[in-house]
Amino acid sequence: MPHPDYFLKSFMKKTATSLALHDLLADLPEGITEIMCHPGFADPELVSSSVYNLQRESELAILTEPEVLSSVEEKNIELVNFGILKNVQVK
Length: 91
Known about the structure:
Blueprint: E1 6-8, H1 18-26, E2 33-35, H2 44-49, H3 54-63, H4 66-74
Parallel strand pairs: 1-2
């Protein structure tokens, strides 16, 4: 089954900060890396159905900060979705 080359699970809860994300982006290895995150909006339905709700808005704010987006561009990081994995050969 196709999968990313690397999986980073440290960007969540109290470690989902701008500084932590900048550090992750600065040290990305070559290849496809999934950074686990759950950005979103905490609407009433999500708040009532998930314990990980308000943190999603914080993650979204960090992921869309102009400084983060500039860092992505400067480091030539290509943001992709899982559809890219269809074209990757499993090692």
